[in-house]
């Protein structure tokens, strides 16, 4: 699966100006932008439509990203159905501290689970805008990306026949384990990686949220978080050892730790319910440079991963997709290649800003449980500063909402 993969024998090749590999938020947004400009493209996805529309993922979307979707006609359901969040709450030292970032900035977050957004984007691309998409494809490979005649091949799920698609550009939107990232020549790629040395137990509970906003519990036992998903389902996180087995966390232990780590005077007890998902996420980040090689442009998790510490991943994917989709349209319809030429640099400005914020916030969340009195003390100092310094509060609000980076 390299850029030099030989072309397979097949029938008559297909031709599209752009092949998008991966039908997540980034790939589907790029596809929709192209179709809105009457540019033909083909989206290839290894999973079924039903799978990607149900795959559980986070759902905190920054306002600038929603406005970008709205501008492109992709936010109708989101704007009708999403919850608006204007504050979050930190709990530490047995007390609660509400942080009203909406009052400080005039901006807010939208809470709209990623499966719903993906469902909207698939429907708009395939059913409304008539975009071509192949689900359940196998053995996707990219070829000749360092020439002006790249192509993508895959096994058709229905017949097993090998298909070849010739194109002008390939958009690699297939995530960390996808074939497009692996297609970059290893001698020309640098992967900057950071491991936090901690895990998060990600939980979905059939229970209403216990507060009207996101909760962050900074506790000597470890971090805990509550992220409302819907009136009936709540996302929780518990800090745990990296690589921990979810089976080490039975129902009783989970709720005991959540009660302890999110405790604060004057708050009602947590609304408990059946746990419908338990998985351990090892906290790490990476950035792939370059994001572009020849006619292949990476976007989303194929190019960078930011741990869910700051809820930035889907927002970065949408940022990439806006820039890439618009740049491809400009090149293919007007011959203007300035957007493609500056694509990676423009993406990486926001990527590195979010990575830095994630590291800063990790110390706030996890310092108390580090076992290091110095880290615990500096984490507490950061928390106190948020609620005593207007300058520190404004800076945090900008980074938390993603409004500190312009493009």
TrEMBL record:
Transmembrane segments: none annotated. It comes from the Bacteria. Keywords: FAD, Flavoprotein. Residues 16-357 form the FAD-binding domain. Coiled coil: none annotated. InterPro entries: FAD-bd, FAD/NAD-bd_sf, RIFMO-like. GO terms for molecular function: FAD binding; oxidoreductase activity, acting on paired donors, with incorporation or reduction of molecular oxygen, NAD(P)H as one donor, and incorporation of one atom of oxygen. This is 4-hydroxybenzoate 3-monooxygenase. It comes from Streptomyces tuirus.
């Amino acid at each position: 699966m390299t850029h030099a993969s030989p072309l397979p024998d097949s029938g008559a090749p297909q031709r599209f100006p752009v092949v998008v590999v991966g039908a997540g938020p980034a790939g589907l947004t790029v596809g929709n932008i192209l179709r809105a400009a009457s540019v033909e493209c083909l989206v290839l996805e290894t999973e079924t439509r039903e799978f990607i529309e149900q795959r559980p993922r986070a759902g905190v979307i920054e306002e600038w990203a929603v406005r970008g979707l709205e501008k492109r006609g992709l936010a109708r359901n989101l704007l009708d159905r999403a919850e608006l969040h204007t504050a979050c709450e930190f709990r530490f030292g047995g007390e609660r501290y509400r942080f009203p970032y909406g009052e400080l900035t005039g901006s807010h977050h939208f809470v709209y689970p990623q499966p719903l957004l993906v469902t909207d984007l698939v429907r708009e691309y395939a059913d409304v805008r008539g975009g071509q998409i192949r689900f359940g494809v196998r053995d996707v490979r990219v070829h000749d990306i360092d020439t002006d005649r790249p192509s993508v091949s895959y096994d058709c799920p229905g017949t097993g026949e090998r298909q070849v698609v010739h194109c002008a550009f390939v958009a690699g939107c297939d995530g960390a384990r996808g074939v497009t990232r692996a297609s970059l020549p290893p001698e020309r790629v640098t992967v900057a990686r950071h491991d936090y040395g901690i895990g998060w137990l990600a939980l979905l509970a059939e229970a209403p949220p216990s507060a009207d906003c996101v909760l962050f519990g900074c506790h000597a036992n470890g971090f805990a978080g509550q992220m409302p998903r819907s009136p009936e389902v709540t996302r929780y996180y518990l800090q745990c050892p990296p690589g921990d087995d979810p089976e080490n966390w039975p129902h009783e232990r989970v709720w005991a730790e959540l009660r302890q780590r999110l405790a604060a005077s004057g708050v009602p007890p947590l609304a408990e319910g059946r746990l419908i998902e338990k998985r351990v996420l090892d906290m790490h980040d990476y950035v792939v440079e370059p994001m572009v090689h020849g006619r292949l442009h990476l976007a989303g998790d194929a190019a960078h991963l930011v741990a869910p510490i700051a809820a930035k991943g889907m927002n970065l994917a949408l940022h990439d997709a806006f820039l890439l989709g618009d740049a491809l349209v400009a090149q293919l319809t007007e011959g203007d290649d300035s957007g493609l030429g500056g694509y990676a640099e423009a993406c990486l400005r926001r990527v590195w800003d979010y990575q830095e914020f994630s590291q800063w916030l990790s110390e706030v969340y996890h310092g108390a449980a580090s076992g290091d009195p110095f880290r615990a003390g500096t984490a507490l100092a950061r928390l106190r500063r948020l609620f005593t310094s207007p300058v520190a509060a404004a800076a945090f609000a900008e980074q938390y909402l993603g409004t500190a980076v312009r493009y």
